[in-house]
Write a structure and sequence with these properties.
The chain has about 650 residues and is an alpha/beta fold. It has twelve helices and 23 strands. The longest helix is centred in the last third of the chain and has 21 residues. InterPro entries: Ig-like_fold, Peptidase_S8/S53_dom, Peptidase_S8/S53_dom_sf, Peptidase_S8_Asp-AS, Peptidase_S8_His-AS, Peptidase_S8_Ser-AS, Peptidase_S8_subtilisin-like, Peptidase_S8_subtilisin-rel.
């Protein structure tokens, strides 16, 4: 079992480019991808992360001592108990710490510790690798004289027939460009603080790398989160692995999240106004879990070890990982972060269609799959039910020459030591799920800028509720639907909701929903033309006095009868600002008006109309138009009778 070095998520084999045309095309993978194989774990130098039970004797003894440290350091006690030379590593919480051992492997020490009654779980402290070592003039199309992709920052604009997966950050910017009070942590290789497109966007951060060889900066943990480069010599990280240049990976991720915008240079970031907190956890050949976990908790403000974090992040971006299940150490830490209101966005991995990488496969994480510009799964992206949604990861389409659809971002030109600060382009391109994740993290930052009370669960649900559906056609004839992950690779395929997440990220829709959900509902007032209509009369219903919130308008009306529908009915349209109700019988009728504003917020009001009976029509005497006899004697009939009697009296007088 390999427990020392963890592999780069997503080696993309160049040989796949030579597959027969009948096979779905392979996409160029991350340029700096590592080999899939890794050397065996060190048989005599163990690194383990352990969590103690809350009621453990060790924890009770720790809390009972007046001089006890505020964190577990139990190497001495366990060393005596197990008769092993153990040393304390960093504390990772109230009941979790790293341990070092001599004379056995990490797997062996983890197994022996897990059997102790004081221990809730113990796992090897493994190494993780980069997922991809893969007015702003580069934002538009056809710029840069052939070096910058002709599509520019296509992935941030509204989708088109050719760029189906574009996320429409431009539409989200109509609501917010991000709050400078909101912080996104980038757990990565550190950043180049001197890059001009990150000026004013970076907070100090911290370097959590303990191992000097991994750190590559001459020291261990310190307050300098700058990236010295992560280059490696041939065979240094793994036997047979070629030498590699520095990736400047953290600088690339930071630029995609929050590069300065409207500054007349370079690119625009997804969340243009938020702050970036660099947390250095990866260096030469990757980084160990103990450093990553410590960095996660510190970034969120859950730990003050080794120093307090004055700028806790609400969102963590982790473009790192490896194959395997979600270990207990990451499971518990992600759960702790979620409980504290922290959203953890993690790249789903670049292992060419294999299972979702860890820690992206941990419950509570926002796992991001990668898609091509046309919306199909990009060849190198992993798949699986743990994916939350998909975002553009960059692809080239062509197999030679300039890359057509990479993701432009900030980087450095140095192969080993830092050199000129530049931008990735058509030849030094950025592709990988490493770069899909920060677009999602930037979108969450926009959402939280509008509603700082947004919980991780609601943020994730909102992202999924506002996605655009995956396309099911438009690719080459050989492209089929993505299948559940197995040990076999799969290249370009049509995403499904069980393989790539709920759908394609729609930044504008997600931000609009947050705005609508948090906005005051419209105020609805109903006017009635007659307060007491009689049966058979028509009543005009109006909406005068109905208003939307500031900056919004009423865009939809809907009238309905909620009670007494047998007594009245609408005559004419029911989706206008007014409506006509025709009554037919006496009784009470309740009418409802529902309105929707321009942000999608809805509200309703009702009114009850009392319909009186129609007046009784008098019955006419016999011989009248109604026919039949009987009934009351009318006044006109009495007048006629009186006139007839007068005539008779006059005739009688004449005869005398």
């Amino acid at each position: 079992m390999n427990t020392r070095l963890f592999r780069l998520m997503g080696l993309f084999l160049p040989a796949l480019l030579a597959l027969l045309p009948a096979v779905p095309r392979a996409e160029p993978g991350p340029r700096w991808a590592r080999p899939a194989a890794s050397e065996a774990e060190d048989a005599s130098n163990a690194r383990v992360i352990v969590k103690y039970r809350a009621d453990a004797a060790l924890m009770r003894a720790l809390s009972a001592r007046d001089t006890a440290p505020a964190r577990p350091q139990h190497a001495a006690a366990l060393s005596q108990r197990l008769a092993l030379p153990l040393a304390d590593g960093p504390a990772l919480g109230a009941r979790m710490q790293a341990l070092r051992g001599r004379g056995l492997s990490s797997t062996q020490l983890a197994a022996r510790l897990a059997a102790q009654p004081d221990v809730e779980w113990a796992v090897p402290d493994l190494r993780r690798r980069l997922l991809a070592l893969p007015n702003d003039p580069y934002f538009g199309d056809n710029l840069g004289g052939g070096v910058t992709p002709t599509a520019g920052q296509w992935y941030l604009r509204a989708p088109t027939a050719s760029t189906v997966s574009a996320v429409n950050a431009v539409g989200a910017w109509d609501f917010t460009i991000g709050s400078p009070a909101l912080t996104v942590a980038v757990l990565d290789t550190g950043v180049r603080f001197d890059h001009p497109d990150l000026a004013g966007k970076l907070l100090p951060g911290y370097d959590f790398i303990n191992d000097l060889t991994t750190a590559n900066d001459g020291n261990g943990r310190d307050a300098d989160a700058s990236d010295p480069g992560d280059w490696s010599n041939a065979g240094e990280c793994d036997a047979g692995e070629p030498a590699s240049s520095s990736s400047w990976h953290g600088t690339q991720v930071a630029g995609l999240i929050g590069a300065a915008s409207d500054n007349g240079q370079g690119i625009a970031g997804t969340a243009r106004n938020v702050k970036i907190l660099p947390v250095r956890v990866l260096g030469r050949c990757g980084g160990y879990d103990s450093d990553i976990l410590a960095g996660m908790r510190w970034a969120a403000g859950l730990s003050a070890d080794p120093v307090p974090n004055p700028n806790p992040a609400r969102i963590l971006n982790m473009s790192l990982g490896s194959s395997g299940p979600c270990l207990a150490s990451y499971r518990d830490t992600v759960a702790e972060l979620n409980a504290a209101g922290i959203v953890v966005v993690i790249a789903g991995g670049n292992a060419t269609g294999l299972a979702v990488s860890t820690p992206a496969n941990c419950a509570g994480a926002v796992a991001v799959a990668g898609v091509r510009h046309t919306g199909t799964k990009v060849g190198y992206s992993n798949v699986g039910p743990e994916m939350t949604l998909a975002a553009p990861a960059g692809n080239c389409v062509n197999t030679s020459g300039a890359c057509l659809y990479p993701l432009l971002t900030t980087t450095n030109s140095g192969s080993t030591a830092p050199a000129s600060n530049i931008y990735s382009d058509s030849f030094n391109y950025s592709v990988g799920t490493s770069f899909a994740a920060p677009i999602v993290a930037g979108t969450v930052a926009l959402m939280m800028s509008l509603d700082p009370t947004l919980t991780p669960a609601r943020a994730k649900a909102t992202l999924q509720a506002t996605v655009r559906p995956f396309p099911a056609s438009g690719a080459d004839a050989a492209v089929v639907a993505c299948r559940a992950p197995t040990a076999a690779e799969q290249l370009e395929c049509y995403c499904t909701t069980t393989t790539c997440g709920a759908g394609l990220l729609d930044a504008a829709a997600a931000v609009a929903k947050v705005r609508a959900d948090g906005a005051p509902a419209p105020t609805v007032l109903i006017s009635v033309s007659s307060a007491a209509p009689t049966a058979g009369a028509s009543v005009t219903l109006g909406s005068a006095g109905t208003v939307a919130g500031a900056g919004r308008t009423i865009v939809a009306y809907q009238w309905s009868i909620t009670a007494g529908s047998a007594l009245a009915a609408f005559s004419g349209p029911t989706d206008q600002a007014s409506a006509t109700l025709v009554t037919s019988a006496a009784g009470n009728v309740t009418v409802q008006l529902t309105v929707t504003d321009s942000l999608g917020a809805s509200s309703a009001a009702t009114t009850t109309i009392a319909i009186a009976a129609a007046p009784v029509t008098p019955v006419t005497p016999s011989g009248g138009s109604g026919g039949g006899g009987g009934g009351a004697v009318s006044f006109a009939w009495l007048i006629g009778l009186a006139a007839a009697l007068l005539l008779l009296r006059r005739d009688a007088s004449i005869k005398r």
